Amino acid sequence: MTGRVTLEKIDADEQWRIYDRACRRVLRMSGVEFARRWDAGEFVGETTPEMMEVLVLRPRGR
Amino acid sequence: MTVSSYKVEDPGKLAFNGGRPTKLHGPERLRITCAMEYQIASADKRDLWKVHTTNYIYRLLDRSENPIVDYHWHPDDTPDVPFPHLHLRKWGSRLHYPTGRVLVEDLLMLAVEHGAEPHDRAKWARILKRNRENFALGATWGVPRVPFDPDRAPLT
User: Fold this and answer.
1) Which ipTM did the prediction report?
2) CB-based contact (8 Å) between B47 and chain A?
3) Counting one residue from A and one from B, how many pairs have CB atoms under 8 Å apart?
4) I need a labelling partner for A58 at 20 to 30 A (CA). Which of A28, A41, A42, B69 fits?
């Protein structure tokens, strides 16, 4: 089966849902918790590939 | 595939399959994930636009979604690791092995080497060549030094 690639424009809330879902799946914590701990500098010098995997999905400014 | 912005200078997010692993055709039943940030900018005075990639995370996973290798570039988030790199996840390594710029096409070529099967290999080779040539036309860094030869790609 071949699947067509579709392009969908999403809003900031949907982007946040994608990020939050990835946080829960990959890091076993909510997007809010990861954002809070990341912004507090808790992971400075201790970043992991898993963190970067979800961080790329986090909406800027949230 | 989702994108979060078409506004000029507004950082946007692009993700395949909502950030979840995407299954590839082939007996190995590999998965990939692709996500990146981009910024749209005016390219010149002819009302043309250019999309700059500002970071990326590409991953190749096995059928159980265990990571094989990750290709990362996230200079803004990790100033101590500003260069493109890979993580040899299958071997448990979290070290940052420097790489050149990696394209989605590179990840797919690796997947093919690992057993993924394009539905139409001739079409795959054409698209690969066209995409690389288009990339070389507008890229500001990470352009391949030699013309890409699809006949030498790992297709057979």
Assistant:
1) 0.90
2) no
3) 72
4) B69
